[in-house]
Amino acid sequence: MARGEEPLLPRRSGHIGLSVTATALLAVATAIPLTTPAAALEIFGYRIFGEDEAEPEIGPDAKPYALDLDVLAEDEDIEDLVRRASRLWREREDPPPPSTAALLNRVRAEYARIVGALYTAGRYGPVVEITVAGRDPFEIAPDADLPTPVPIEVTVDPGPAFTFGEVAITGRAPPPVEEDDVVEPSDDAAALQSGELARSTAVLATERLLVEEWREQGHPKAAISERDAVANHPTETLAVRIDVNRGPFAVFGPVAVTGTERMNPEFVRYMTGIEPGQPFDPDTISRAQRNLRQLGVFSTSRLVEAEEVGADGALPMTVAVAERPLHAAGVGATWSSVDGAGVETYWEHRNLFGQAEQLRLDARVGGIDSVNAEDFNYFVGASFLKPGVFTPYTDLTALVSGERNVLDTYTDNTVRARVGLAHEAFDGLTLAASINVEAVKIEDSPRAGEFLLVSLPAEIDWDRRDDELDPTTGYRVGFGLEPFYEFQYGNTGVIAELEGSVYFPIDDEGDFVIAARAAVGSLVGAEAGEIPESRLFFVGGGGSVRGYAYRGVGPIENGEVVGGLSYVEASLELRAMVTDTIGIVPFVDAGSAYSSSLPDFSEDIKIGAGVGLRYYTGIGPIRADVAFPLDPGPDDPSFGVYIGLGQAF
Question: Cα separation of 5 and 297, whole Å?
Fold first, then answer.
């Protein structure tokens, strides 16, 4: 896939972002679904728009309290653990309980909260003493007259740290035959060994592991039949005995569907990929749930197992769904002092014929910085997606679009039509191929001309990242190959690209991650002047070498940057969490485009370096990067600012 072209892979992926160069002082992009009103927006703790929430009213019977929490431990981690577990501590500055009874209920529940938290740290002999106005909270009547604020004293002696003594497990599943059935133990589960710190989380994690091992081998109703955990206080050890009941072996039974309105329930059943009689496998359920989510039709979708395996050994399944609105629409606006203003809109039908067929119409106008409409950028397009072609994991995609882009070195006018298939072979591996036809007219360039290109782009995407927007472990490799024939000059050639990224967590929590990316591309079979300039390679911008302008790095002809027949790129980042919501990312990028079909490195590699700020939200990190070109040319910006959703790669 040539850089800048639409990806073949239709399943939702990618980043939302914008870039600002040194002279583009401000750029803001919005996309507002017409069906969803926005109440407020808050970023970094500051409310951008919307009303502040009203302060809750405090009733006349409310009971403010003054808390004195004393943890008798020199270990700050234990003290922090107790404070996090204590609701009285966490809510001490919140509105007070509405009555004496509510306050007493909160106080009495403190014992279990604190003791349970200490168990997770291997403390099985704690002493927790609580008084309310100097009295035992269990001896105070719900309507007692208490002073205001109510004095509450909590004293916690966590006791010694216990280690695991004898650990006995019976009924464990045998080693699996299939590699896919291997269940890797979590760090907590691996810690259930004699001599290790006796964290309660290790026992619970091991129980989940034992059950999942049997489920992976076709026993859906495996359960822990008995657990004994006995603390020996003189030896400060915890003896653990766990017995597992594997339950019956099962196959998938009939699949029922509930909650459909416009969707065809038989198609929903088909898209799960679950075949009755197939051996039960949690991986099949996970893939079915992911496939249903990717349809984009449901606000919620769940696969529910029957309570019991039938006498015939079959486990019935139920797909419970709730459909999203049938249509969606959005509008957006952008502005920068360099590119001018822009507006965009889209309309989407999510379920044309009852089988999640999607039709989307897009239109954009950009570069509005003058009254001359010929200087504007335009795009109109219609795309269609039909899931479940041939298999539940194969999509048919089609696109028709027209666009005009007025760039510094050339103007591109392109009409394109594309139809193709994308198939998810298994979790993480997606294959795609299509037929592409495009007519291109290049203006305002020494390489001006008209071109007609027919190509067969194909892609392989192998994605083993733990998260799409904020990966901390794993890797991703993408390879694209696009054979083409250009009719104007009669050239037959191929465009090839290879990109990979890898992520190494430095610590167990993933708060510090080294991320690296590299990419290389080549166009063979045509001279640079005999292929549309929009199909040549450029480097620079937020997804490339930061610090340089978008498509601002490439071979130089007559003092102007032009497209090349090959390119290389590399990026290195250190992603460091500073708080639970704030991170910093120092980074360095390097790359260049070349006039030859193979990188010859005779032209300088451009290097950009900088630092980014990350604000972590529930939908992914908000990214703000500032980068500086280390070897700027006369037309390069002095710095670049890049803002988006998700990590840079």
Answer: 27
